[in-house]
Amino acid sequence: MTGRQLAKRTPVGEIDHQLDIGPTVVALDAPLVEVAHLAIAHPRTRILAVIDASGRLVGLLPVLRVVEEIVAQASPEVLMAEVTDLEMAARFGREVRARVAGDLMGPARFLRPESTVGEAFRMMHEHRLSGLPIVDGAGQVMGYIDLLELALRYLDEASIGSADGPPTSQDTTEAAAKNLGGTGSDDP
After folding, report:
1. Which residues of 132-146 are buried (b: 16+ CB within 10 A; e: fewer)?
2. Per-position pLDDT tens, the chain of length 188
3. Would you say 179 and 2 are in contact if contact means Cβ atoms under 8 Å apart?
4. In angstroms, rounded to a whole number, what is the distance separating the alpha carbons of residues 146 and 152?
């Protein structure tokens, strides 16, 4: 099976545990200090799943946003240098007042177990996310797919490299070009 076939056909439910990165779930009303401690306890999960009181996914919270908020509260002048217009100033003001996970979370984006690797790549790329939770039919978080997890699976299945060792950058470039219909060389 080629990497391109893998992207089209492999359900994410099949590869959810390949790297054993599980979801980190936080309550909508969890204080940011608690959220930060959960993120530290699960450092490989870079996107936190925010759930409501019934356990349903209601939003996503990148760990980077939690870190930025802690820095903004502890030392706001560090981040103020990045504020260059009125819109950024308004956002900075809202975020500095954030106290719980729900104050910082973004929209709930997720995969279902039957979602394909290709769909996962597209969704993560489109929304600039490094991972996504997998939810069941009731919206309960049941897994987590990390972008690195997908990339490694894709490379493993694409038969890149030789039996002599790991793939080289040339192997990767040629295989990617082949999967995309090119030649892999710099020639037009």
Report:
1. bbbbeeeebbbbbbb
2. 454 555 567 888 887 766 678 899 999 999 999 999 999 999 889 999 999 999 999 999 999 888 888 777 766 665 556 666 776 666 666 666 778 999 999 999 999 999 988 899 899 999 999 999 999 999 999 999 988 877 776 777 665 544 444 445 455 445 444 544 444 434 33
3. yes
4. 10
88's CB contacts (< 8 A; 6+ apart) are 82
What 3-state DSSP class applies to 71? helix
How many CB atoms are closer than 10 A to CB 35? 25
DSSP 8-state code for residue 31: B
Q: How far apart are CA 94 and CA 87, in angstroms?
A: 11
Rounded CA-CA distance 130/79 in Å is 23
**Strand, helix or coil at 24?**
coil
Query: Is the entire prediction scored with pTM above 0.90?
Result: no
For residues 94 and 86, the answer to whether their CB atoms sit within 8 Å is no
